[in-house]
Give the backbone structure.
Amino acid sequence: MRKNEGDMEIALEAPRLRAVPSPDPAPTLDSSDAELLARVGEGDREAFELLYRRYVRPLFGLALRRLGDRGHAEDAVQEAFAAIWRSASTYRPERGAAGGWLYTVARNAIVDRLRRNGLATDAELPELVSNEPGPPEKAEDSYVAVRVHRALEELQPREREVIELAYWSGMSQSEVADYLGLPLGTVKTRTRSGLARLASLLEGEEL
Amino acid sequence: MSPDFDELIGTEATGAERAKLREAHDLLLRAGPPPELTPKLRAGPNPGVARMQHRRRAVKRRTLVLLAAALSVAVVFFAGYAVSSHRGSGGSKGAIVKTLELKGTATVPNAQATLDVWQHRDGNWPMTLSVTGLPKLPPRTYYEVYLFRNGLPWGSCGSFVVSGASSVLRVSLNAPYKLHAGDTWVVTRVTVGSEPGKTVLRPVPA
């Protein structure tokens, strides 16, 4: 009842314009978001897949926060990625970071979904990526969550695992060590290195 | 229940490095847990189902025509369904009549939940709670969902435990009461044999 299955498929339409030149022959895990977005603008499905893997969880989290329903949030995320595929060629790196552009596209998809469901008006999801100072705290928290969850995707799986368990499972580090069958020292080392990597990623990125 | 930064990091990192780690720690707490993906999203974008946009629009137009034609059939179907539901037959829960967003209190600031209340059946209101960020509790302690009316606990709607995994937990509950406008729900932490415990999730103000 809440979903239109046929409506939610990601429509891949070959874009006509290029955003920025793509220098490398193939996208890699080390490619920046802007490089991937440029490739997506040229119709590169491999780049789209990589971008999807990086952003699907953060954007699903954003949609879930605003829509409060997994079915609607899933639809909104699929619509967001369809929009990213269609309009990647319009991204201009000189106007801002790729992460910010992706956030805006996702936010618009969520607002569309809210409107369609009659759940909210624009005022409930204020524009964050704008020139206006002082964004509301709620939107800022969503923005922070997207940044942090995006950065988590960059961690090594073993680091991400201990970070997620340490912060959100309610377990102590000793319990995490028992749970993973690792020495406590290893858990502490991975937690510290994961946090350090996270700090560097969040310091360096300009979502 | 949030992890203690000093315990996590110990005393090895100092100065600027420690400040940097602290900042990441604070941002993690503020962000809360990332969601568990749905199977469909986990599967990734599937080029096999890719369609050209204009084709999709054409399909949509055709779908609208078909929908109009199917509407009369659907009305008959749902009328029959409603009758069979009223008679207490099995099947789905019907429509969601209320959705409530809940947020963790100071005890568990990163917890959040969505409570869907479904159309009642014979005076029972099935509910689905989707919750993240609640910690595993010690033995003999559990979470209990309370109906609140006029600011006071009215009655229990069920209880649950958390295994400790970081994914979204979905639990089925039931409100066997006649619901009133303004009714709301909270999640409390209860120890067996004691009074109703501390509230850990309360509704997000509208």
About this structure: Residues 151 and 200 of chain A are 9 Å apart (CA to CA).
